[in-house]
Specification:
By secondary structure, this protein is of the alpha/beta class. The protein has helices at 55-58, 61-68, 76-84, 151-155, 174-184, 204-214; strands spanning 5-9, 15-19, 22-26, 47-49, 71-75, 90-93, 98-101, 104-110, 127-133, 138-141, 161-165, 188-192, 218-219, 227-229. The strands form 2 sheets. A 7-stranded mixed beta sheet has the order 6-5-4-3-2-1-14, covered by helices on one side. The longest helix has 11 residues, at 174-184. The termini are close together. The protein binds nickel (II) ion and manganese (II) ion.
Length: 230
């Protein structure tokens, strides 16, 4: 049958989503990303979503957006910054606000993290994305974040897939990411933001076994470049 939504992990926090015939890139960090062999100069994008201003998330957004003319969706401060860098095709949203885009309804969620931009500019507050596809599937991209209790509110919407950081040090580690799964209760989970560098190395198989044992969520461990069909 026809796959409604496909999510691809390119390593670290870089993801692709194919939905409703559109190609969406999230935090497109290819150049200098030790976890990927994919190159920024041939990746497809109709939309680029940026969770926060850190260089491992802004990544190659500017060059990809200039080449593809993709619409870049980010918080107001990052969208303004991109405008100053010459990108005119941006859409600013902010935390708690949703908007119907061609690929689905995107609501910006809070995240506990920083968001300064690579040149030191103010990148506003960090965010996650809760996307309701046109086929009514809900996907929560948490972004870089620590555990927070309001993940329960996100879970109340009925999350089909949660994409969560587990690397520790900069974000939730495995123990708090397990607690996040218990708050969100998604049908499926994809762990990200681990093993890019030794500082965030994790035993993902062990984490997956614990999640499977303690929750009803199904964990999908992807290798960089692999996809999950929702
Ligand atoms: Ni970050
Ligand atoms: Mn990061």
């Amino acid at each position: 049958g026809k796959m409604e939504t496909k999510v691809t992990w390119y390593g670290h926090s870089t993801l692709g989503m194919e939905s409703a015939g559109y190609s969406i890139l999230i935090d497109p960090f290819f150049s200098g990303n030790p976890a990927t062999t994919k190159k920024a100069d041939n990746v497809k994008a109709d939309f680029i979503l940026i969770t926060h201003g850190h260089s491992d998330h802004i990544g190659d957004s500017i060059s990809i957006a200039k080449r593809t003319n993709a619409l870049v969706i980010a918080n107001f401060e990052i969208a303004n910054w991109l405008g100053n860098k010459g990108l005119k095709n941006t859409h600013a949203q902010h935390i708690g606000g949703g908007h119907q885009h061609p690929f689905g309804y995107l609501k910006m969620t809070s995240a506990l993290h920083g968001s300064s931009l690579p040149d030191g500019s103010n990148g506003g507050n960090p965010a996650g994305f809760l996307i309701t596809t046109n086929q009514h599937k809900k996907i929560y991209f948490a972004g870089d974040t620590g555990l927070f209790g309001d993940m329960r509110l996100i879970g109340e919407e009925g999350v089909d897939l949660a994409v969560l950081p587990i690397g520790d040090n900069y974000t939730m580690g495995p123990t708090d990411a397990l607690r996040a799964v218990k708050l969100i209760q998604p049908r499926h989970v994809i762990p990200i933001h681990y093993n890019t560098w030794p500082l965030i190395a994790q035993d993902v198989n062990s984490w997956a076994q614990t999640v499977q044992a303690e929750t009803d969520s199904l964990v999908h461990i992807l290798q960089p470049g692999e996809s999950f069909d929702l």
